[in-house]
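FORM 12-B: Structure-to-Sequence Request
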């Protein structure tokens, strides 16, 4: 994980792909909930590992409007990247079935894109809808699709494989389960309602049919919109305010840092991004044995409000040189927040949009819980890798976390009207 302090400010204007309310469309059979129009929160996340931004005070989302939020499917960048954190998430990776190739992959992406478009609009799936979400509105549902390194060999598209998709280097803190890592295809599902999210997960699995089989699947969650008195940076399962310095869509260099330019290489990745996915287990029993002061020294921020130990508020600039009466650094040299600062990593930036997870309690009473870390960047070798290498060399948080699964996926730009995701790759 990486804290990369991020302020909670909304973009100056709605970003393309931001949550909007349907206009000019009749109400579907899933009647939308609530009466207030939902604006949706846009969360940024960059450099480091754990950050979000949120709307200004006074823009809190009433609980009665949660079901009403709708995210458009046909956008410049795929949905599920710049939208706000969602209350429920599912990550699922597939491998193409033996004998399946480019033709089968194209047909699958066409099916998945049609299903995503329908479900995100609050409509039922085209075939065999399970009715799980019949009574709910869209609930901010997003579906995001990506391709893994192995996908290109299986479809005969090796020449179209991006250099940025080269396998990530090994890190000393890795304890990776290969069965729960990588994959030919990756789908991220997020929603503000658990049934809506599960409905989408089931539809995607059914659509795979005989073309692909599940390699691994993970479930996550975040705080529900409207659960706090006012919008605020989320907390992770360690109780820390997590992410106070993510890049914001309003930043002048946001697009350059997070998305592949329209004239970038390869051409089919124009307006796309690269997602690094890591399952990071938090060793909560060990963490919770630390005193409050010890926990704050590990992170470099106050637990109560996320302010840097050097003083101020959550968004105050961290004073890395400040010392106490005994001459000791107020923010320890190996504090997580110090190490992950972009200005300590050559400006490395990534947009973090994670989920927490809890997969039960082991036989010895230890919780299997932590973070489904997801970060977005135009080039993982300039975003994720430099920061993770720095963390690998002496992050105070390292003894309390364990990286157990990993994946890297090329996520193409959004599909235009009449197109499906990945069409320029598969039919180019």
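FORM 12-B RESPONSE
SEQUENCE OUT:
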């Amino acid at each position: 994980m990486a804290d990369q302090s991020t302020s909670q400010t909304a973009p100056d204007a709605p970003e393309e792909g931001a949550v909007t309310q349907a206009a000019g469309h009749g109400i579907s059979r899933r009647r939308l909930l609530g009466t207030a129009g939902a604006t949706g929160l846009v969360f940024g996340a960059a450099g480091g590992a754990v950050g979000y931004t949120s709307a200004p005070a006074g823009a809190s989302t009433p609980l009665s409007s949660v079901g009403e939020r709708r995210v458009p499917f046909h956008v410049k960048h795929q949905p599920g990247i710049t939208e706000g954190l969602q209350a429920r998430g599912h990550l699922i990776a597939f491998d193409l079935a033996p004998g399946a190739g480019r033709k089968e992959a194209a047909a699958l992406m066409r099916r998945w894109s049609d299903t995503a478009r329908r479900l995100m609009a609050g409509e039922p799936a085209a075939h065999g809808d399970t009715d799980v979400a019949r009574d709910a509105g869209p609930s901010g549902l997003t579906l995001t699709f990506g391709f893994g390194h192995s996908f290109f060999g299986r479809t005969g598209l090796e020449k179209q494989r991006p250099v940025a998709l080269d396998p990530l280097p090994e890190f000393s803190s890795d304890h990776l389960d290969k069965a729960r890592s990588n994959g030919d295809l990756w789908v991220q599902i997020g929603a503000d309602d658990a049934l809506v999210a599960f409905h989408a997960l089931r539809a995607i699995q059914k659509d795979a049919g005989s073309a692909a089989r599940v390699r691994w699947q993970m479930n996550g969650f975040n705080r529900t919109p409207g659960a706090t008195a006012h919008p605020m940076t989320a907390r992770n399962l360690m109780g820390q305010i997590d992410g106070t310095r993510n890049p914001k869509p309003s930043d002048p260099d946001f697009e350059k840092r997070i998305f592949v330019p329209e004239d970038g290489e390869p051409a089919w990745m124009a307006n796309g991004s690269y997602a690094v996915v890591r399952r990071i287990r938090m060793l909560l029993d060990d963490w919770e044995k630390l005193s409050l002061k010890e926990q704050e020294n590990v992170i470099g921020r106050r637990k109560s409000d996320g302010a840097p130990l050097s003083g101020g508020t959550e968004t105050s600039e961290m004073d890395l040189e400040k010392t106490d009466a005994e001459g000791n650094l107020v923010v320890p040299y190996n504090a997580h927040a110090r190490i992950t600062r972009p200005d300590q990593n050559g400006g490395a930036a990534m947009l973090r949009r994670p989920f927490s997870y809890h997969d039960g309690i082991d036989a010895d009473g230890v919780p299997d819980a932590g973070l489904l870390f997801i970060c977005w960047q135009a080039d993982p070798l300039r975003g994720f890798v430099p920061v993770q290498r720095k963390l690998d060399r002496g992050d105070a948080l390292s003894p309390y976390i364990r990286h157990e699964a990993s994946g890297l996926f090329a996520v193409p730009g959004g599909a235009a009207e009449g197109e499906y995701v990945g069409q320029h790759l598969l039919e180019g």
